[in-house]
Amino acid sequence: MSSSEISSRRAFRRTDDYTPGTPKLNLINEQLPPLGPTTVLIKVHAVALNYRDANIANGGNPWPVIPNGILCNDAAGEIIAIGEKVKSLNIGDRVGPITDTENISGREVKRSWLAADEDGVMADYIVFEENVLCKIPDYLDWVEAAIIPCAGVTAWSALKGMSIGQTVLIQGTGGVSVFALKLAKAAGLRIILTSSSDAKLQQMMDKYPGILTINYSKTPDWDQEAMRLTNGEGVDIVVENGGTGSLVKSLRCTRRGGVVSQVGYLSKQDPVDLRELVPTIIDRRINLRGINAGSRFDMEDFCAALSAAQTRLHDLVDKVFSFEQAEEAVEYVWQGKQIGKIVLRL
């Protein structure tokens, strides 16, 4: 079928039924958004899931979302049609959209998150403005490429400013965490990985010899253990994804003047847990920075770095589902079964 004949698409839209055990997605056929003068039509080849997607589907997102929106913000595909005023992209280009379509340079004051403020990418065809798209490395297959826009760029942004030999504490074994672990290892950083699963920690130690680990369920005072592992100095940076339940401890185990990159909110959020936030952040002079993936410029820089080193990403993928198994894939992520990324292949 030629691009001129494509007028509809299959897309998974949320049911917005948050009752446990009920379907969270509906597969529907719908009209494609019209192709405008500066937009492109993309045939999607792979869609990657993040915890954020499962959280939105189950009603846990802390920010408003559009009703019955299309899920997901990680995708890779091929341009099959372009508007008459598109200048920087061509038919056949391999691209992925940025997570925040207002965040081009990093200096914008607005934001619009895919799968929240606007429809996401869990569809076989998507239409986007050319300025929110980034070319993805040619040497990666579609499954690898699909994990770049959100998880990859988030990990890249979270580690900005690190130097060889510094120590990073990474929480968990989800998509952003394993991406950050891979990047940190390649950059010559000393790594402390935390998880509540000995099996997951062992699997990561087998894959990345030399990393240090802490099981936070067996070691509730894991911040003190991190201090011990750094001879009382603290880590240089934390990739923090627990939220209120772990943030203060992350600050406590960061060296004075260090950085905490807040990339997520996996634990149950309770403001009471933050009662010591202000005195701790002042005492330890911590730079606490919020990370929401990154700008288009960040994604371009990351893709350039990957291409320069010809870095493969297949080892970060835990499991690949078919597009039709999207419901099963969302539940898999919601149950926390993955070590790494979950991807739908179209």
UniProtKB/TrEMBL annotation:
Entry-linked CDD domains: MDR7 (cd08276)
Region (Disordered): 1-25
Record InterPro entries: ADH-like_C, ADH-like_N, ER, GroES-like_sf, NAD(P)-bd_dom_sf, Zinc_ADH-like
Single GO MF descriptor: oxidoreductase activity
Span of domain Enoyl reductase (ER): 21-344
PANTHER family given in the database record: PTHR45033, ZINC-TYPE ALCOHOL DEHYDROGENASE-LIKE PROTEIN C1773.06C
Protein name in the entry: Enoyl reductase (ER) domain-containing protein
Lineage of origin: Eukaryota, Fungi, Dikarya, Ascomycota, Pezizomycotina
